[in-house]
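thread: overnight batch results

M.L. [08:02]
morning all. the overnight job finished for the chain we discussed friday. pasting input first so we're all looking at the same thing
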Amino acid sequence: MRVSVSACLRSAEVTPLSAEVTPLSAAGERSVARRLLRCAAPLLSDGQTARSLASASSSGDIQAVMRRSGAQFPDLQRLATVVLQPVTTPQV
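M.L. [08:03]
and the structure it wrote out:
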């Protein structure tokens, strides 16, 4: 199943304003990657797993949900693995 990133971001919480783009694009609860994970969860898993990810507020919470349910939903597991990778910025 293909998930449109732009469709997920439009449907998730608030569309970022230009002042919010930098904080949203990095790590954190409101990051673009985590918003995408929350949006894709109902398409890639069952309702309970999607609700658990929607209420996950930290990396540890996401990891706990995926430990419980990840094996059942391999596409969601792969997405969560990418989302939980540390954010690095290039050295200038």
